[in-house]
Amino acid sequence: MSHTAEIIAVGTEILLGNIANTDAQMLSQSLSTLGVNVFWHTVVGDNPQRLREALDIARHRADIILTTGGLGPTYDDLTKQTICAAFGQKLVLHEDILEDIRAFYQSALHVPMPENNTQQAELPEGCTVFDNPVGTAPGCAFEADGVHVLMLPGPPHECETMLRRCVEPYLRALSKEVIVSHDIMTFGMGESSVDQLLHDRMVRMVNPTLATYAKPCEVRLRATAKAAGAEEAEAMLAPVVAEVRAALGDYVYGVDVKGLEAVCFQLLKERNLTLSTAESCTGGRVAERITALPGVSSVYRGGVVSYWTSVKAAVLGVPQETLDQYGAVSEETARAMAEGARQITGADIAVSVTGVAGPDRDERDNPVGLVYIGLATPEGTFCRRTDSGRRRRDRIQELAANHALDVVRRYLTGLPIG
Amino acid sequence: MSHTAEIIAVGTEILLGNIANTDAQMLSQSLSTLGVNVFWHTVVGDNPQRLREALDIARHRADIILTTGGLGPTYDDLTKQTICAAFGQKLVLHEDILEDIRAFYQSALHVPMPENNTQQAELPEGCTVFDNPVGTAPGCAFEADGVHVLMLPGPPHECETMLRRCVEPYLRALSKEVIVSHDIMTFGMGESSVDQLLHDRMVRMVNPTLATYAKPCEVRLRATAKAAGAEEAEAMLAPVVAEVRAALGDYVYGVDVKGLEAVCFQLLKERNLTLSTAESCTGGRVAERITALPGVSSVYRGGVVSYWTSVKAAVLGVPQETLDQYGAVSEETARAMAEGARQITGADIAVSVTGVAGPDRDERDNPVGLVYIGLATPEGTFCRRTDSGRRRRDRIQELAANHALDVVRRYLTGLPIG
């Protein structure tokens, strides 16, 4: 049987427009994958009466209600009390959770737990507790009157952690079917090109399904199959993944991988090589993405953010003649930056980025969006020129960082740099 | 009289989690500023029955209903028909709008208008038309049974254009009040501590109001006043802002500013100083946040991501004895990194970060979360030691970057580094 869900967010900050309701997006993606139909999103403020009314509407049209927000220690966090009143549940103090919260304060925050945090340890009697390893407010779930009610914290990283660890297993147990999906990650092709190549195939598919999700600078294809068991679902998915790979070729950089940087990390480890970076217009974004990966210090040595031309010369050793003759945004400078970074850090390979992130053209009248990527290797130095034509600074910087990582990936897998 | 609004988004893509409901965020921000209370957001799919039910709920609790989405020419765009049925309005073809749409196709898209676009020119009889200069679907508004119903297109740039040109003037004409708010930004104090200091004050306040919003590593306080005019609202807010500043002292780093990096940028410009960075555990995050700001090359020279100890020595010139004796994560190394970055880049001041981002303790058994910030200046070198006790790598890195920027801010404003 198929379940029907409503997601209720509790938070005045959403109604004031301070934040978007990204928790609802994240939960919706997950529930869709699990085969749960999400038919409504509702947002109410930190107001018990309006929350109560929303619950009374939701319980009559959905058999799964997920709430986000309102579990914190401050006076306006009233989700639990209101839900328990609506569903006739008794709120009781869970001593073990209180101990966990006290311990978190002592060990992680090095201060005694403020007394107003005590209410975070109060949960409905007999509920399933969702522990919160990244915050102090636990979540929970209970069933009453044929409705499953799940309460999650509002801060997105806490909500997501609890979703993966607790909510997905809880919901999976409600269903007889399994849903398996694979994400096929691509870089270098626009969404409409991907769509044109695969459109006819996608619209014909029912189970498995294939859908595209465009992030600002990447296209992800998600293949999803529903079956009685995981093995059966996998067998249904294998030909779909193979077909997409065949259609998109080496634009596909991985399946179920976290991003280009994760692929580069894996390839560097396998080949026992180290990397360094030299960034101008990306201002540290390549380094930042790489160093977000735990354990990456085995392959990443470091880099230079040579924002000023003088830093390109003094720290990276780009020859002053190169800078004078070709300018900071040029193939020659990109090559010299990569070679300089490789030399001063002693890494096996080094990647560089120099370009015009805007908002204005540079002093040589290079257009906003023009970017050069250099790659210095034991086999010589390579360069990619790219001009996205984009105008938004943050998009140009993100796309340029993707290009840099893509150049590294292609070199390490023996593909043309392009 | 104060108006009460509900925003209803029509779009299956939101319920599937393909996109976040950013239209609702944008509209909410605008309506709050106009003094309209947004008490509900609702999302339904492209389903006439569920939209009808949502409208029937909304018309009994709100006197302004804004809908987004479902105005396009495809088969699932049913917003207008459903709304007109619910409110007893007659949908009529507006010949002038049809001409506009035909002209838009000819001049902007260089193709004849497809015939299924004709229905975009059908609008409720006697409605206020909201024209759409950036798309083909016009919006509209009408009043029925004491409820104002406004229909806007879903694509965010069309929705925003119509909001500014048509919706804001329409709503302004309905209201006598303005709402003004100020965001007081703090760093260094947890949400519970801020809450404890200001709790009694916050719960007593009605107009103006004061509320806290915690981001992962910062706390923002928003003071909001409602009045007949902007000047009056500002006069009501001034003592609240002053009181918060008095209570939180130099934890307040600005009012209505975008972040610590924006404050540092402004201070550096005012003092005509340049900055550089030397980052280990933050891996480029400080540089990345600074270089996200347009025009920042006037004050930011660049930096080094010295992830390996050998890069600290070879590029930043940290003495090998310092590294051997005290280790990479130490006050001495933090100081030497900052001094090295200042020297090789020629910047007036340089900030450094070295710490243990985890997941494991470092080889000297320093705990995860221990971070040293160094600051090299013409007046000497300073250091801050901080141990957040946090365990999540990304939070440790983000918090460490905030500490680095906070040290720069404090130095530039003559405050103790702490």
TrEMBL record, chains A, B:
Q: Which domain of life is it from?
A: Bacteria
MoaB/Mog domain: from which residue to which, for each copy? 6-173
Q: According to its UniProt record, which protein family does this protein belong to?
A: Belongs to the CinA family.
Indicate what this protein is called per its UniProt record: Putative competence-damage inducible protein
Report the coiled-coil segments: none
**Could you tell me which PANTHER family the record lists for this protein?**
NICOTINAMIDE-NUCLEOTIDE AMIDOHYDROLASE PNCC (PTHR13939), NMN AMIDOHYDROLASE-LIKE PROTEIN YFAY (PTHR13939:SF0)
Classification via InterPro entries: CinA (IPR050101), CinA-like_C (IPR036653), CinA_C (IPR008136), CinA_KH (IPR041424), Competence-induced_CinA (IPR008135), MoaB/Mog-like_dom_sf (IPR036425), MoaB/Mog_dom (IPR001453)
List the gene name: cinA
Q: Which organism is it from?
A: Dysosmobacter welbionis
What the entry lists under CDD domains is as follows: cinA
